Structures are given as C-alpha cells and as structure tokens.
Amino acid sequence: MASQKISIAGVEFKNPVVTASGTFGSGMEYGEFVDLNKLGGVVTKGVANVPWPGNPTPRVTEVYGGMLNAIGLQNPGIDVFIERDLAFLRDYDTNVIVNVCGKSVQDYLDVVERLNDTDIDMMEINISCPNVKEGAIAFGQKAESVFDITKKIKDVAKKPVIMKLSPNVTDITEMAKAAEAAGADAISLINTLTGMKIDINRRAFALANKTGGMSGPAIKPIAVRMVYQCAHAVKIPIIGMGGISCAEDAIEFMMAGATAVAAGAMNFVNPYLTEEIVDGIEAFMIKNKIEDINEIIGCVD
Amino acid sequence: MKKKVAGFVIRSEEIAMDIYSLWIETELAKDAKPGQFVGVFTNDKSAILPRPISICEVSDDKTALRLVYRVVGKGTKEFSHLHAGRRLQLLGVLGNGFPVEEAQGKHAVLMGGGIGVPPIVELAKVLSGKGGEEAPIAKQVTAVIGYRDAGTFLLEELQQYAKVVIATDDGSLGTKGTVIDALNANDISPDLIYSCGPMPMLRGIKNWAEAKNIPAYISLEERMACGVGACLGCVCKTKNVDHHSHVNNARICTDGPVFDSREVEI
After folding, report:
1. At which of B63, B94, B125 does a domain end?
2. For position B64, which CATH number holds?
3. How many whole angstroms separate alpha carbon A260 and alpha carbon B197?
4. Are residues B28 and B117 in the same domain?
5. Mean pLDDT of B145-165
6. What pLDDT, on a 0 to 100 scale, did the predictor assign at position B246?
7. First to last CA, chain A
8. Is the ipTM of this complex over 0.85?
9. What is the CATH number of the domain that holds B232?
10. Is pLDDT of B243 > 90?
11. Does some domain include residue B266?
C-alpha cells in the first residue's frame, strides 16, 4: 500500500494535497464535486477581523494559459467565518488551514487570537496578496517586514503558522529565511504574480483594479523554480503551488522540495481536480513502486 | 447537482451577424430551467476558463440544450466552428433561473435586449405551457424585444410562445428606441417583468418597474471564473446585507444571475 501520509509542524496529513486559498471558498461549493474527506486539507479563503467588501468589478479576466484576479480579499469577517465556515468544515475528516489577512499587524493578531480558541489545524498568514492597497503584500516584500510580522504572530499563535510568500520580490529565498528565522512553522508559495491586461477595443484595463494576480498553468515553471530555491534555503516544510493542473504537476513540485501541494486556479477549470490529484499520485506511486511519498520530496537535487 | 460533463454538438449555425445557435446533446438538459446557464470549455488549453452562456432552449425530451451566443473572443470564435458530432466539456447547470411560479395567473412581460434575448425563449416556452400545448403558468405572455437593427434573431421561436413587440435602436423595425419605449407605445401593462439584456436596459427597467411598483426579475452578467460561487469574481451590489458575503455583494453565478430588481444596486 502506497502511503501518501506527510507531516507538517506535527500536523499529520493523510495525503499532501490541499487547496490554494481563495480558489476553494471554505469547501462548500466544491463539496458538490469532490469528497472533502479525501483531501489532505482545505485551505480557506482569507479571513480578516471584520468583513471586507473587496474590489469593484470586473475582478477576473483570462490571460494566455491562466487568469488574473483582483478580488481584493472580500470576506465576511472572522465572526461569520467561525460560525458558518468552520462549523461546516468540522464535519469533514480533513485538516483545516485558515488563511488570515489584515491591513495592520493588529488586524492579523486579532484574527489569530480568535482562531486560537477554535479547533483548526493550522493558520496560513497571507502577506502576499497583490490586490489590496493596505496590508497583505506590504508585509511580504521586505525581509525585515516578513521577520517582524512573523515574529509578532508566532508570539500570539497557538496553532502552527504557515507564512504565504509572494513571488513579486527580487529574491524569494530572503523572505523564506526571514520567516524561518522568526519562527514560522512552514511556508507556502507562490502567491500570484502581479500582472496587467488591457482591452484594446475599449482602451481600458480588463480589471477595475488595473492590476491583478496571475495564476494558472502558465506560471508553473516559475513556481517550481521558487519552491526549489526555497527548499535549499530553509529547513521548514514548504507547501508548493502555482498552476498545478494534474497529479504529475503536483509530483513535480514535491520533487522540487515541497512537502505538500495546493491546487488553485485550475479548480475553476476542473472542479474534480483535488481528488483526481490524490488518485493520480497514488497511481504514480504504484507504477513507480514508491511506498512512501516522503521518498520523493526534494529528490531532484 | 452541478457537474462537468461531455456534450455532443447536434447542430451549429449562424442565425444573425456574429450570433450563433448551438444545439448540444447533454445530460445537463434534464435539470435545466429558464434563466440558468452553463459554462462551456474551449479545446484551446491557453483559454482555460469556462464561458458562461445562457440556456436558450431545452429540447422537449430534455436530452439537449440550445445555446445562442455572440462571437466576442477566441473562445466563442472556436465554438462557432464546431461541427455536428464534436465533443465539448460543459459545467452546469449553473445559476438560479427565473422564478416562473411568480407568474401564476398573471400577465408576464418578458423583456430581452440583444444577446439577452436567448434566455427569454425558454422562459416564454415554460410560462406559456409550450404555446398552449400544456397548462400555461402565466395568464398572458408578452415579449418586448430590443435589437440594434432589423438583423433580428429568435423571433420565430418567440412568436410561438408569446405576443411579440419589437424595438430597434435605428427604428428599422418596430418602435424606434428602447424596450421601454416599445412597452409604452403599445400600452402594455405588465403584472410582472422578467428581463435579460445590457446593463443600461436593465437599469431602465428597474427604474420603470419600481416607479410603478411592478415586480421585475432581471438577469445580470459579469466576468466570472469558477461559475460555482467559490472565487467571488462575479459579484453585484445588493441593497441589504446578503446571507453569504455579509458585505452587500451577491454572487451572480450562484445567488443569481436572476435577481429581484429591488434587491440589487446596478
């Protein structure tokens, strides 16, 4: 029997497949397509201390081999989230990882404190969303800021902390090292790449926000490269993501050094994707006589 | 229950300039209701997202859907070249659809503009009991339809199920002006309105209907990615705090696309 079990910061995962924040809601919508019990974990849409209205529309547009989004972290706030989304997820046998966003350090800490009192498995701290004017990415583009916010969160958090890193930096390994030095339990990468699209017929930006975060298969080689670089820069586990559209892509990220993998924008294209990746990894393991998935993590060196 | 399934092209044809009709054999037809839509995938891997297209008709045996769309980009361009027998992937059925039961025993006025006309066809069919073959839902069904010019489409289909009144932008057919101009010119008194079309038209109908205290159900569109309510791409402002977002942002793909005009700010 091929074992897909992995562990991150003491949290056991039945398999390395999770969802990328913002592409899966809190699982309710895709629960119609996949059995959430079969996933290693569900990473929720970002949640803040209070409701955020998000950006004006249009918020999404397609680009070659991917898409741009500028949702702007619309979320109902932590109160509704705990009452509704966490209550929903509790009925499933899967790890629950809550993505946390904020405009100020105190915003993040407020959410972290509220989550401390819940039964979630981990927190993922979003310091890399390119689509909001205050907070988020402002904390993620300088090593000192990454260190500072990670440390403040770690001082308060009673659950393992994953710092989600932005690829929109000169050297992502500097951010990874800063997160590790400040005590982060894991890192996840990559968030979206800042992009732009112009509608030439309307002589206007395709998105109301002008810029948006690019995701989809077109960004995968960049993401694989960054996961590989970070895996060589830090010892803490990495959750790899960026354009994963099949089990083979997921395996590629693991061979680059990711302990777990997240499916993101391609859920929109194939709503059965997450479950298919779990099954595809198993098929690959059987075919290649791999007994333990941990064997392949970072095997390409 | 939403699914992503294969469909097979039965017939594809251009029915007006850049307007195409596509009959697809698909199991999604079994549960399709007027005002709902499907996501249609391209075979071009560089164009990843499903194209949301409204359901124009459901075959009588509920094994096929008719989609009528305008060619606007590379996805719809590809669809326009599909031949009978070709396979394509569909996500559906999506959205809430028009609340047909609200028309029970009433004079329903269906207002469609441009590429908003297609969903009006299936709605007229259902409200009229297939033009009288079955027990109708509405007492009377009138369709007030707007086109740019005399290059009309789906008129014959609509005439089987409703009394049809036309408005054109250039006055080449029917009333010159908007669908509201045509409504007034023909002294039509709706008990309720169902509508799909461009935003300025929907805004006009919302204002007209609210001033007269007539219920109006309007079908909205917006750029969307997932089509199932997860990505929060296709939101519209709502008057009251809605149950899902808690920030007055309803999801057009799942809370809509059809809304009571009084509930949305457009």
Report:
1. B94
2. 2.40.30.10
3. 46
4. no
5. 96
6. 86
7. 27
8. yes
9. 2.10.240.10
10. no
11. no
Same domain, B89 and B108: no
Q: Give the one of A62, A66, A74 whose C-beta lies nearest to B232's C-beta.
A: A74
Whole-angstrom distance, CA of residue B187 vs CA of residue B51? 38
Beta strands in B71-148 (DSSP E): 87-94, 107-113, 140-147
What is the reported pTM?
0.96
- The string of DSSP letters for A140-197 reads TSSHHHHHHHHHHHHHH-SS-EEEEPPS-SS-HHHHHHHHHHTT-SEEEE--PEEEE-
How many beta carbons lie within 10 A of that of residue A81, not counting itself? 25
State the residue range of the domain holding A278: 6-296
Nearest alpha carbon to residue A212 among A54, A82, A45: A54
Report residue B36 CA to chain centroid gap: 7
Nearest to B58 by CA among B81, B84, B25: B25
* Interval B11-49: pLDDT, tens: 999 999 999 999 999 999 999 999 999 999 999 999 999
Q: Is A266 on the interface with B (CB under 8 A)?
A: yes
Task: Enumerate the active-site residues of A.
Answer: 129
* Residue ranges of chain A whose pLDDT lies below 50: none
CB < 8 Å from A in window 41-60 of B = 41, 45-50
pLDDT (tens digit per residue) in A58-92:
999 999 999 999 999 999 999 999 999 999 999 99
The encoded tokens of residue B243 equal: 């149950």
Q: Which residue has the tokens 């586990």?
A: A237
Is the CB of residue A62 less than 8 Å away from at least one CB of chain B? yes
- Strands A260-263 and A17-19, sheet pairing: parallel
How long a stretch of residues is chain A? 301
- B240 pLDDT tier (thresholds 50, 70, 90): confident
Rounded Cα gap, residues A220 and B215, in angstroms: 49
Q: Which domain holds residue B233?
A: 221-259
Residue type, B170: D
Q: What distance in Å separates the CA atoms of residue A49 and residue A102, rounded to the nearest whole number? A: 7
Bridge partners (DSSP) of residue B218 are B195, B259
Hey, of A268, A270, A273, A276, which one would you mutate to test binding to chain B, going by the most B CBs within 10 A of its CB?
A268
Is residue B133 domain-shared with residue B58, that is, in the same domain? no
